[in-house]
UniProtKB/TrEMBL annotation:
Gene3D superfamilies: 2-enoyl-CoA Hydratase, Chain A, domain 1 (3.90.226.10), 2.30.42.10, 3.30.750.170
One MF annotation (Gene Ontology) recorded for this entry: endopeptidase activity
Keywords, in A-Z order: Hydrolase, Protease
An example Gene Ontology biological process: signal transduction
Keyword Electron transport applies: no
Classification via InterPro entries: ClpP/crotonase-like_dom_sf (IPR029045), PDZ_sf (IPR036034), Pept_S41_N (IPR041613), Tail-specific_protease (IPR005151)
Superkingdom in the source lineage: Bacteria
Keyword flag S-adenosyl-L-methionine: no
Transmembrane regions: none
Lineage, broadest ranks: Bacteria, Pseudomonadati, Bacteroidota, Flavobacteriia, Flavobacteriales
PANTHER family referenced in this protein's UniProt entry, alphabetically: CARBOXY-TERMINAL PROCESSING PROTEASE CTPA, TAIL-SPECIFIC PROTEASE
The protein's name: C-terminal processing protease CtpA/Prc, contains a PDZ domain
Gene Ontology CC terms: outer membrane-bounded periplasmic space
PROSITE patterns: PROKAR_LIPOPROTEIN (PS51257)
Length: 505
């Protein structure tokens, strides 16, 4: 039988070889030979990978009894425990995850998680929200936007269109995941329209097909408008993707060239992404003083003791020299105020930019209450010598028998003022939900949320009516249905440490 030692895994986001002197030795027990036909052997490699990773890195490791360092007295007891839990997902969900954990996720194929964090997905390019039809369990969908160069971009469908069914089946709270996010790569949306203040089926159908490898440009819209004596820059940024920093920097260079003195940052559909990208965006807005603390990351007790001050993350002065970026100096606006559109679709790195900027400049939040994701994660794979941290240069070292990816919550974030308590979301300064009857054109000065920001900037109220006839009241969306989309991705680089996974008592 293959042995799974408790002390195999050594911590290291930037990993060096683990010194044998640093590992706690678990004494081998005398094994009794058993005839092969009497052994009902269970494959426990995945369970071993899950347990080792979570025992060391999981933020709530100290709150889960089965992850305690002294949980097992012997090697045999550990292996018997793993064998008793033959289904990896049930084992993870029911034995290892903390009850308050909303955002840990996993996949049998780690490459799916790698692609997701890079903005690459299997998709038809339709981004939509889902709302409940009043008094029923039926749902309706409304198109938020269409990804450029996608299948949907070539179809007769646009922002603001409504649908109530898929392939002739009415959407409900019980079936929408199977119908919209299942294995059906091609489906026909049953479209709808607003009649007498309600949503009614129409005869129109739109057929869409998902394709592998769709790459979404996270910069969906950028433009500059003039209102009175104000030059207002507008940026809609839809995912914090590493490698987009140079392009963002170019957008801000254009803002400077056009004399922008106010900025509206639209994060209403941005569920999060890379923390280092958030640092670049925050610095483009506020300034590049690298001694100013943007946020801290707090870990479980044993990791925190190792990391200390290295958990501090500062504003930056360049785009960085990773994922194709040129390490160019940032074209910062040096603003003392920013207007951020954020809603129930905004999470993670979007919220981090908001709370990270708050101690330094005035952040005017327009829209709705955000998701409330104050936690960070890293992708892990079964690579013990690499600390189990995914490294694109070590893919050949991943256990060929275990291709799972595990992205657990490993940290909590707080800003420079020590603020971390926003699990219930960030409440807007100016509440204005999207109106399904009038979503408008993104980036257009007449789009309701942007128009409200412009009104706040100029101080000119005019005669614009911001009454909402049919608020979206989002139940789910094409991005929020899966927790892996609302993740703050921490950089896979931290101080070297050599903590064994667990110590035998």
């Amino acid at each position: 039988m293959k042995k799974f030692f408790l002390s195999l895994l050594c911590l290291g986001f930037v990993v060096t070889s683990c010194n044998n002197d640093d590992d706690t030795v678990i004494e081998e027990e005398e094994e009794v030979e058993t005839p092969e036909e009497e052994v009902a052997e269970v494959d426990i490699e995945v369970q071993n990978f899950f347990w080792q990773t979570l025992n060391l890195y999981y933020f709530w490791q100290g709150d889960v009894p089965d992850l305690a360092d002294d949980r097992f007295d012997t090697q045999t007891a550990y292996e018997e425990y793993l064998s008793e839990n033959s289904q990896p997902v049930d084992f993870l969900e029911n034995k290892l995850l903390f009850s308050e954990d909303r955002f840990t996720f996993y996949n049998e194929d780690y490459t799916q998680l790698v692609n997701s964090s890079a903005g690459v997905s299997k998709s038809n390019g339709l981004q939509f929200g889902l709302g409940r039809i009043t008094g029923t369990d039926d749902l309706f969908g409304f198109v938020e936007y269409i990804v450029k160069n996608s299948n949907a971009s070539g179809q007769d469908i646009k922002r603001g269109d409504l649908f109530i069914g898929v392939d002739g089946q009415t959407l409900t709270v019980d079936n929408y995941i199977d119908l919209l996010f299942g294995d059906n790569d091609t489906y026909a949306l049953n479209m709808a329209e607003i009649v007498d203040g309600g949503i009614s089926a129409s005869d129109r159908k739109v057929t869409l097909t998902k394709s592998e490898g769709l790459v979404e440009d996270p910069i969906h819209v950028s433009n500059v408008i003039t209102s009175g004596d104000k030059k207002i820059g507008y940026l809609m940024y839809n995912q914090f993707v590493s490698g987009s920093e140079d392009t963002m920097n170019a957008v801000f260079a254009d803002f400077i060239a056009q004399g922008v003195n106010d900025l509206v940052l639209d994060l209403r559909y941005n569920p999060g992404g890379r923390g280092s990208t958030a640092a670049v965006l925050a610095s483009l807005i506020k300034g590049t003083n690298t001694s100013d603390l943007l946020y801290k990351t707090v870990y479980n007790a044993k990791l925190q003791a190792e990391f200390g001050s290295s958990t501090e993350n500062y504003f930056v002065s360049t785009t960085g020299a990773f994922d194709g970026n040129s390490d160019a100096p940032l074209n910062t606006l040096n603003l003392n105020r920013v207007y951020i559109i954020a809603t129930e679709g905004s999470a993670s790195a979007s919220e981090l930019v908001m709370v990270g900027l708050e101690p330094y400049i005035n952040v005017v939040h327009i829209g709705g209450t955000t998701v409330g994701k104050n936690q960070g994660s890293v992708l892990f794979v079964d690579d013990p010598e690499g600390g189990n941290v995914y490294d694109a240069e070590r893919v050949d070292n991943i256990n060929p028998n275990v291709q799972w990816g595990l992205q657990p919550i490993i940290s909590q974030v707080e800003n420079s003022a020590g603020f971390t308590d926003y699990v219930d979301g960030l409440v807007p300064d100016i509440e204005l939900p999207e109106d399904v009857t009038n979503l408008g054109v993104l980036g257009n000065a007449d789009e309701p949320l942007f128009a409200r920001a412009i009104q706040e900037i100029t101080g000119v109220s005019g005669k614009r009516n911001f009454d909402v006839l049919m608020p979206a009241n989002v139940v789910s969306s094409s991005k929020l249905y899966n927790p892996r989309n609302t993740v703050l991705l921490l950089n896979n680089s931290m101080p070297v440490s050599k903590i064994p996974v667990a110590e035998k008592k």
